[in-house]
Input
Amino acid sequence: MPSAQVQSANKRRGLHTSRKSFGTCAGEGVFFIDGFISKDECGLILDELDAVFWHPSLTYRQQPDGKYRNQLTSFRVSQTAHQHWFGDSLQDSLALIEKRLQKLFGARPSHLEHWQATDYCRNGMFDYHLDSGYWQDHYAGERILTFLLHLRTPLKGGGTDFRALDTYVEGRAGRLVVWENLFPNGDCNYKMIHSATPVLKGKKTTLVTWLRQKKFRNVDKLADHEGK
Output
C-alpha cells in the first residue's frame, strides 16, 4: 500500500489511496485491479479500435538543442491511436471508465490527459523510461499517476517491468495497472522507471492516460492532442 507520506500528499490532492481503491499491491507505488472492465467490454473496445487511425508510436526524447520532441526510434516498437480519432461509442465507454477512475481514485476527468491506445505485435516493446520529469513548466504540471488498462492478454511476454523495484506486472485483459510517478513533494520518482517488455507471442493492446497536477483538458469539448 502507499506510504503514509504518499497517502497524506494524495489526500491534499483529493486522491484516494485505500486498499479497496488500489486493489493488489505489486510493488512500491505500483497497484493493479483485475476485472476493472469485463472481457466483453474489452472485446467491444477492441472492435471500436479496429476502425481508428493508427500510426507508429513516437518517443518523447531530448534533442541536441536540449528541447524535448516526439520522434520515431527503435526505443519504442508499437502502433498508437489517439483519442481524437475515436468514434462516439468508444468515447462514451471512456467517459464511463473515467467516472470509475474518479470514484476510486479521485481522478477528475479535467485533470486526465486524452487517452492513447497502443498496439504491440510480436517483438513490440517500449524500452525503459519514466512517465514524469518532463512537464514541470507545463500548464497542467507533472503526471501524478499512470492508468494503464489492458484490453488483450499476450500469449507470452508483454508485461510491465519496474526494474528499480524488481517488480513485473503481467498484461491481462481487463487489468488496470496504476503507479505513482512523483514523490510527495512533487519531484519525479526515478524508481518508477519501467518498460513494456517485448511481446514474444500473441498481441498486446492497451489504453493509457495520465493524471496531471492541474487541469489538462476541457471535458466539454475534446481538443486535439498528440500525447507523449
Notes: Helices lie at 4-12, 19-22, 39-49, 88-105. The chain has one domain: 4-52+72-212.
